[in-house]
């Protein structure tokens, strides 16, 4: 075009090369970090599961029994010809492309360490395609039901294990008394007040509960005989959870269904608990895991059956379990050599050791769970309190407005203080000055709570700010006081956002290592902590310790398993947070 | 926000209600006060032990000393911060060489080139980079990055080195640069872009010639924040960089110009301020010893530097922001 007029001194002559090059350069920059992280994660996964030593037959067996059925399930749920065609093309074409490209690179350029083309195919093609199909499949009703059920099974089991872990440290007898004398009467009074519309009963609930809790603490040492731990957990956790599940169902589906939803998991949990006790397993944990998995699952199944849509999705857990068993049987029958993963059940249930093959993460996991539970309570309470004060209780102008701005700037600055400095604060203030002890769980929890407090506050403020002002005005107009408006209108609306922010902040706390080192957390403990003031270790702390060991088995095996465990827990927490947010967004 | 609750009180409230209101207001105020107390506690904790430290070691000696050995096996203790500063600067600058160009390009891509769909996928994915625990990054640097670099580019590299650690710190701070810069770029009004196109500019010229200059204050503040984060980064350097406080060897180039071979600094072990603090925790933590107090002096230095950088970043973002 422009060349038609050579006199114009290049007017209108625009080079597209520079623009296109820049666009691709900037795109490359955006994915650079992600690709680098992806490669590293692939390697750490290979190391943790010892996939480098997995024979192709082994990979093929599990690919056929686990991955293929899952993909078929997702395609069935998506029910979209276009998606099916694209998925098959990607999986098939990817197989050829990866095999050819990989062999070419190996032959012509450099050998790629600890990877073969089968693994490359799994990670580069199969994993992303499966993830994409899972995303598409969850859009269909069948897929949504399947993933919902799977999530409840996994989440319930994780919750049960976590609660069981907490009772290693917290006194179950105090909890038994507190529940029986405080929680139960208070909840009962409150429910009575709701049903009979008696405000007096509802007002009485809080004082009665407090009196009961106080009495529990004082009576702890007075009472001599207690029921066994198993009975305590059955009475204080399994029964109320089952009752709550039954109540949820009773409204819609009548008494029989409600009794089934509450009774079946309860019976299963009781039976599981006593069987485990007989078999020498930690019975209370088994009981809690079954109860907390069973009740939400039963409620969900009942709801799906009631809705009558996507019933096929309920088969997903069975499909996966059957696939895993079939894979194991085939591997056994054909005598295919199986890899020896570092991350296995004994890694999660045993204590650390100087011998790589015997090293385990159990005490560190317990330490992390206990710390995070305390951090969750502390930072949630402080974060909500502060953000409510800043958003609801202080005006934008006047001396109080200035105070608000100072607080705001202060919080922003606290968010940027290096975590190692918080560690010094914990060491100087909590451990030494207040005498909570060097390297104890309490010190760690307080330090980490302060560390994530600014993040919690900022996200809670955003959640509160996003509550429409009309709702507040409406509440005010009906004569509600400020606290009543906050309690009945603002907080319920903002709660999903606040919870999301808190869980994301907890994800930060669970991976923090530097403050733990500074407060003198133990590098290695061989027993799970049994009190809040005992020395403890945490997952990142243990990873740090192991990474310093020179043996290759530690560097490339044990630490990789620890890293994968930590990352899976992080993904689980963040996934929960994102699900919460999405559900809240859909709801409003 | 809710000035309207000061509207006339139509129902006469009983004493119990008023007591309840006061209690909850007080509780929330107490929660807010804790954030102020935290800042005060950090100041006091750091300062009180640092003051004790500076009674035995003068500030001048601390700031100009070229030897750091708090727990020597035989010889005398020495508390000179210079080798630690060199280590910290090495990591920070190298990391900035990665995070600043990549982060800026990412921000430009997200704000100017990416389709809304691509942006909605890329942005949360990039946040993952900042969410991975730093000890995991340190492990990656030690176990995967260092051997890879050793096998390909730098055979003479030591197992613990500054380069691998800095690369990981750089990758970790990419989202810090990109998200703040992208916010600033997205805030540039579309009229400016349209005016650029109206003058015949290409998309490349609009992006680099209009959007970037118009959002330069936000971009600059994001750089400072990322650098401040790199300065305070602990676990990556602790795991991957080793703990050897040393002064780089100054060589004489032509005409006697002194210079330091970058390979000498980058490919060898080193020590940052944060590593020095972590190393001291291996000893006695009950307090009262000189190394214990020196930890707080280092913490004070770190706290002061990051605080000043954050304030500067804030001032740049606020004061030099172009208002549209």
TrEMBL record, chain A:
GO MF, one example: phosphate transmembrane transporter activity
Keyword Transport appears in the UniProt entry: yes
Pfam families reported in the protein's UniProt record: BPD_transp_1
PROSITE patterns for this protein: ABC_TM1 (PS50928)
Keywords: Cell membrane, Membrane, Transmembrane, Transmembrane helix, Transport
Coiled coil region boundaries: none
Subcellular location, record wording: Cell membrane
Keyword Hydrolase: no
Main subcellular location of this protein, as a coarse class: membrane
Recorded topology in the membrane: Multi-pass membrane protein
GO cellular component, one term: plasma membrane
Domain of life the protein comes from: Archaea
UniProt xrefs under InterPro entries: MetI-like (IPR000515), MetI-like_sf (IPR035906), Phosphate_PstA (IPR005672)
Protein name (Swiss-Prot/TrEMBL): Phosphate transport system permease protein PstA
Membrane-spanning segments: 24-46, 58-76, 88-112, 118-137, 149-167, 173-192, 204-224, 230-249, 256-277, 283-302, 314-339, 359-390, 411-430, 436-458, 556-580
GO biological process: phosphate ion transmembrane transport
Sequence ranges assigned to domain ABC transmembrane type-1 in this UniProt record: 365-577
TrEMBL record, chain B:
UniProt GO MF annotations: phosphate transmembrane transporter activity
Protein location: Cell membrane; Membrane
Classification via Gene3D superfamilies: MetI-like
Domain ABC transmembrane type-1: 85-313
GO biological process: phosphate ion transport
Transmembrane segments: 22-44, 81-108, 128-147, 159-180, 295-317
Membrane topology listed for this record: Multi-pass membrane protein
Alphabetized InterPro entries for the sequence: MetI-like, MetI-like_sf, Phosphate_PstC
UniProt keyword annotations, A-Z: Cell membrane, Membrane, Phosphate transport, Transmembrane, Transmembrane helix, Transport
Gene Ontology CC terms, in alphabetical order: plasma membrane
PROSITE patterns the UniProt entry points to: ABC_TM1
Family, per entry: Belongs to the binding-protein-dependent transport system permease family. CysTW subfamily.
PANTHER family on file: PHOSPHATE TRANSPORT SYSTEM PERMEASE, PHOSPHATE TRANSPORT SYSTEM PERMEASE PROTEIN
Its job: Part of the binding-protein-dependent transport system for phosphate; probably responsible for the translocation of the substrate across the membrane.
Protein name: Phosphate transport system permease protein
Organismal lineage: Archaea, Methanobacteriati, Methanobacteriota, Stenosarchaea group, Halobacteria
């Amino acid at each position: 075009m422009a060349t038609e007029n050579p006199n114009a001194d290049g007017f209108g002559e625009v080079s597209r090369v520079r623009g296109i090059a820049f666009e691709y350069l900037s795109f490359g920059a955006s994915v650079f970090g992600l690709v680098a992280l992806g490669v590293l994660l692939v390697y750490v996964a290979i190391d943790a599961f010892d996939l480098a030593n997995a024979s192709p037959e082994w990979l093929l067996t599990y690919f056929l029994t686990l991955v293929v059925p899952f993909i078929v399930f997702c395609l069935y749920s998506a029910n979209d010809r276009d998606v099916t065609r694209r998925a098959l093309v990607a999986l098939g074409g990817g197989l050829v492309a990866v095999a050819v490209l990989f062999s070419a690179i190996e032959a012509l350029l450099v050998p790629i360490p600890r990877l073969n083309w089968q693994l490359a195919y799994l990670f580069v093609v199969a994993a992303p395609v499966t993830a994409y199909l899972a995303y598409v499949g969850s859009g269909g009703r069948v897929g949504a039901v399947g993933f919902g059920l799977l999530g409840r099974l996994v989440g319930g089991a994780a919750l049960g294990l976590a609660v069981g872990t907490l009772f290693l440290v917290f006194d179950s007898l105090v909890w038994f008394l507190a529940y029986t004398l405080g929680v139960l009467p208070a909840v009962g009074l409150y429910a009575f007040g709701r049903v009979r519309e008696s405000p007096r009963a509802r007002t009485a609930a809080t004082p009665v509960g407090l009196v009961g809790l106080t009495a529990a603490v004082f009576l702890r040492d007075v009472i001599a005989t207690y029921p066994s731990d198993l009975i305590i957990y059955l009475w204080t956790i399994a029964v109320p959870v089952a009752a709550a599940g039954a109540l949820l169902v009773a409204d819609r589906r009548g008494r029989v269904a409600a009794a089934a939803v509450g009774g079946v998991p309860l019976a299963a949990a009781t039976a599981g608990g006593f069987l485990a006790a007989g078999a020498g397993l930690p019975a209370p944990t088994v009981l809690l895991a079954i109860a907390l998995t069973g009740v939400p699952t039963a409620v969900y199944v009942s709801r799906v059956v009631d809705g009558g849509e996507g019933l096929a999705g309920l088969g997903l857990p069975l499909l996966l379990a059957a696939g895993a068993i079939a894979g194991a049987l085939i591997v056994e029958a054909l005598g295919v050599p199986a890899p020896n993963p570092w991350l296995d059940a004994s890694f999660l249930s045993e204590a650390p050791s100087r011998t790589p093959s015997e090293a385990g993460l159990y005490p560190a996991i317990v330490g992390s769970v206990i710390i995070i539970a305390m951090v969750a309570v502390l930072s949630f309470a402080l974060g909500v309190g502060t953000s409510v004060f800043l958003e609801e209780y202080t005006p934008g102008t006047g001396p109080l407005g200035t105070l608000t701005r100072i607080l705001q700037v202060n919080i922003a600055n606290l968010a940027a203080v290096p975590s190692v400095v918080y560690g010094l604060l914990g060491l100087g203030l909590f451990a030494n000055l207040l005498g909570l002890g060097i390297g104890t769980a309490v010190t760690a929890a307080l330090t980490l709570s302060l560390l994530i407090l600014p993040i919690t506050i900022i996200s809670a403020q955003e959640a509160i700010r996003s509550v429409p002002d009309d709702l507040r005005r409406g509440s005010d107009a009906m004569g509600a006081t400020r606290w009543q408006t906050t309690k009945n209108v603002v907080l319920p609306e903002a709660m999903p956002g606040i919870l999301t922010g808190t869980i994301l902040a907890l994800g930060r706390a669970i991976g923090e290592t530097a403050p733990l080192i500074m407060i003198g957390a133990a590098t290695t403990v061989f027993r799970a902590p049994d009190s809040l003031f005992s020395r403890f270790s945490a997952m990142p702390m243990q990873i740090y310790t192991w990474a310093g060991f020179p043996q290759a088995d530690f560097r490339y095996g044990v630490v990789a398993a620890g890293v994968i465990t930590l990352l899976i827990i992080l993904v689980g927490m963040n996934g929960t947070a994102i699900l919460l947010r999405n559900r809240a967004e859909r709801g409003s | 926000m809710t000035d309207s609750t000061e509207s006339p009180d139509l129902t006469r409230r009983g004493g119990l209600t008023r007591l309840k209101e006061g209690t909850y207001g007080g509780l929330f105020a107490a929660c807010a006060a804790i954030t102020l107390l935290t800042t005060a506690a950090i100041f006091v904790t750091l300062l009180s032990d640092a003051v004790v430290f500076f009674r035995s070691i003068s500030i001048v000696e601390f700031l100009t000393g070229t030897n750091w050995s708090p727990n020597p096996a035989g010889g005398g203790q020495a508390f000179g911060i210079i080798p630690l500063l060199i280590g910290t600067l090495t990591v920070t600058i190298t990391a900035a060489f990665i995070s600043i160009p990549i982060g800026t390009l990412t921000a430009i891509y997200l704000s100017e080139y990416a389709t809304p769909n691509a942006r909605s996928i890329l942005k949360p994915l990039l946040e993952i980079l900042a969410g991975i625990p730093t000890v995991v990054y340190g492990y990656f640097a030690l176990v995967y990055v260092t051997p890879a670099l050793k096998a390909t580019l730098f055979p003479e590299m030591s197992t613990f080195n500054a380069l691998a650690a800095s690369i990981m710190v750089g990758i970790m701070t990419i989202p810090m640069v990109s998200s703040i810069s992208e916010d600033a770029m997205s805030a540039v009004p579309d009229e400016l872009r349209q005016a650029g196109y109206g003058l015949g500019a290409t998309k490349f010229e609009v992006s680099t010639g209009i959007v970037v200059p118009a959002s330069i204050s936000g971009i600059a503040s994001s750089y400072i924040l990322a650098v401040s984060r790199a300065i305070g980064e602990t676990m990556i350097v602790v795991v991957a960089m080793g703990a050897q406080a040393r002064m780089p060897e100054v060589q004489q180039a032509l005409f006697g110009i002194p210079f330091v071979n970058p390979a000498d600094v980058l490919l060898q072990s080193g020590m940052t301020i944060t590593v020095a603090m972590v190393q001291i925790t291996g000893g006695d933590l009950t307090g009262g010893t000189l190394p214990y107090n020196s930890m707080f002096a280092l913490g004070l230095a770190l706290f002061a530097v990051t605080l000043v950088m954050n304030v500067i970043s804030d001032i740049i973002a606020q004061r030099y922001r172009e208002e549209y």
